[in-house]
Design brief:
The chain is mainly α. It has two domains: about 160 residues, Orthogonal Bundle (Tetracycline Repressor, domain 2); about 130 residues. It has 18 helices and no strands. The longest helix has 25 residues. The relative contact order is 0.11.
Length: about 300
């Protein structure tokens, strides 16, 4: 990997400093403390955690345990997102999509954000270990470390493997919810992990294709930047193909009913079909937006149907 992808050259640093926005007229508000946690990611994590908890409970769940597990998970994931904002604050200035965030604009200071991340992480992990069991706490810690250390500090800056490896952290929430109930890793936990893990790379690569020039300018070695858009389209396919057996396995092992089997299969095949059409697309940006939106709907509908069609 070229050194310019790993480190910021002095000339780039000077240009970035000169382009930095003027100090804000006022300090950050409570809204800035919320947005720095990436609420969109937290919402999807909460739904996934609840789906895992519900699947393990089989319609007979402990309300108190569920609340504490959801709270612990969302705090841990929020901490990881705040750490991500803290370490990426200079790089965020170089992308149109991120330059208006609280840290690049100066509405929040790095010191405040760092302490905010630490406090969220400590409280979140304490909640999981204290109320949801040691296994849920361990998976929460693993998800946090993979996202902050392996993904944000290492691979995101150095390798095209960042998306695939970073998907491990995104697949932790449903597993946390599941093991909080069962206290063990069985086929249900494995299938939930697989669903969230396989979903993430094609979802994020679709966004990467839409924003490829922004990622290139920021120096991120994302797959579309390093290997090209065609290679990225090809690499999406194995993940989407592997999603197809999951509804069948969920049904076969008795975790979900026929509705999830049918709807899950249709969604998986539909996403694969939409991705394959990209090889003949005349406008990659338009196509990638369709794939990205399909991926969001795929996950939302899959989790909702899975929750409603869980076998008791």
């Amino acid at each position: 990997m070229d050194n310019h992808l790993r480190y910021q050259a002095p000339s780039e640093s000077a240009a970035l400093a000169s382009a930095a926005p003027a100090p804000p007229e006022k300090a950050g508000t409570w809204k800035d403390f919320i947005t720095v946690t990436k609420p969109g990611i937290l919402r999807s994590n909460l739904i996934a955690t609840f789906a895992g908890f519900w699947l393990a409970s089989k319609w007979d769940f402990q309300f108190g345990l569920m609340i504490m597990t959801l709270l612990g998970t969302v705090l841990v994931m929020a901490s990881a997102c705040v750490f991500n904002n803290y370490f990426d604050r200079e790089l965020d200035m170089k992308m149109e999509r991120t330059r208006d965030r609280s840290l690049p604009t100066g509405r929040l200071t790095p010191k405040v954000v760092l302490w905010y991340a630490i406090i969220l992480g400590v409280v979140g992990l304490a909640t999981l270990f204290g109320f949801s069991g040691w296994m849920a706490g361990v998976f929460g810690l693993v998800g946090m470390l993979v996202y902050v250390v392996v993904y944000t500090l290492w691979l995101k800056r150095t390798s095209t493997w960042s998306t695939s490896v970073g998907a491990i952290s995104g697949a932790m929430p449903p597993v946390i919810g599941y093991v909080a109930v069962t206290g063990t890793v069985d086929m249900g936990a494995i299938l939930l992990f697989a669903l969230l893990f396989l979903w993430q790379p094609p979802h994020f690569w679709a966004l990467g294709i839409r924003r490829v020039e922004e990622y290139r300018a920021a120096g991120f070695p994302l797959l579309p930047v390093v290997k090209g858009i065609k290679r990225t389209k090809i690499q999406m396919i194995p993940y989407l193909v592997l999603l197809i057996p999951l509804p069948i396995l969920m049904y076969t092992y008795g975790y979900a009913g026929k509705f999830f089997l049918v709807i899950g299969l249709l969604l998986s095949i539909g996403w694969l079909y939409t991705a394959i059409k990209g090889f003949w697309a005349k406008d990659d940006e338009v196509w990638s937006k369709k794939v990205f939106m399909f991926s969001i709907n795929y996950l939302t509908l899959s989790l909702i149907v899975l929750i409603l069609n869980t076998i008791s």
